[in-house]
């Protein structure tokens, strides 16, 4: 039996959503050097129907890991980014993980930004810890001034709307306590690319304990699936809905999203015992 975590009492899953990340996913998996692997219990890569060689390159990279269990699954349907989160959250609950770390598969964020918080046990104080690209000590590489300004305006608007300082509504590196997820509120949230934003808004309105932490964020060969202005409109609408109709949202637990089964087939597992 190998030791899978330096935090003896914590069983931590790292979830990596993957969609057409054939060039980037090997670099993401390579972030888990020998010491980093020992911090976590398992890596779960969830492919959402990639049309490139993502699965093949992910398997090749996964075979190089010696000190951690890694599982790669492929969704039965394209559930979008939110749906892949739901696959992973369900997996974490069913397999009794204590925490879930979300690390996007496009190599913009780095797992090492959250490791000091775990080693210091800061994560035990919160329901969620949200990576922020736009706070003090964060660093952006390859991010346009236009997008920086747009995010500043959006974050300021949301902070005023919710009367709480928000420095990022949805980056690609976050941590969630599994106990926080166990009522499965996430199942009735939209599956599209606004899912991380909706998770943030739910956290605010439900008065959960959360904090932001700084990131090093890179944009080199990443290709965003989000259309900037459409995405901004959707996030704006979601923020207003959560702020002024939160009780209505939480009552609508049976909807088109919660009825989906979110099935994902295992296509690789290095079967570490």
């Amino acid at each position: 039996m190998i030791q899978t975590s330096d935090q003896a009492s914590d069983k931590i899953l790292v979830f990596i959503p993957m969609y057409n990340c054939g060039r980037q996913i090997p670099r993401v998996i390579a972030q888990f050097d020998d010491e980093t692997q020992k911090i976590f219990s398992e890596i779960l890569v969830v492919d959402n129907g990639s049309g490139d060689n993502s699965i093949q390159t992910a398997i090749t990279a996964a075979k190089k890991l010696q000190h951690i269990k890694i599982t790669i699954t492929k969704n039965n349907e394209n559930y979008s980014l939110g749906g892949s989160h739901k696959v992973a959250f369900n997996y974490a609950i069913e397999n009794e993980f204590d925490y879930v770390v979300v690390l996007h598969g496009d190599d913009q964020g780095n797992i090492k930004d959250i490791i000091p918080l775990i080693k210091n046990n800061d994560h035990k104080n919160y329901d969620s810890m949200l990576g922020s690209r736009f706070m003090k000590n964060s660093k952006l590489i390859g991010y346009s001034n236009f997008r920086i300004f747009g995010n500043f305006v959006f974050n300021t608007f949301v902070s005023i709307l919710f009367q709480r300082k928000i420095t990022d509504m949805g980056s690609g590196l976050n941590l969630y306590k599994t106990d926080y997820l166990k009522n499965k509120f996430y199942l009735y949230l939209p599956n599209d690319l606004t899912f991380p934003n909706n998770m943030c808004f739910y956290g605010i309105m439900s008065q959960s304990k959360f904090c932001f932490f700084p990131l090093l964020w890179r944009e080199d060969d990443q290709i965003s699936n989000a259309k900037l202005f459409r995405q901004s409109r959707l996030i704006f609408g979601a923020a207003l809905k959560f702020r002024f109709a939160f009780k209505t949202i939480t009552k609508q637990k049976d909807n088109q999203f919660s009825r989906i089964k979110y099935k994902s087939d295992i296509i690789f597992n290095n079967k570490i015992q």
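The CA atoms of residues 210 and 251 lie 23 Å apart. Strands lie at 12-18, 42-47, 69-75, 99-103, 128-132, 139-141, 173-177, 210-214, 216-218, 264-269.
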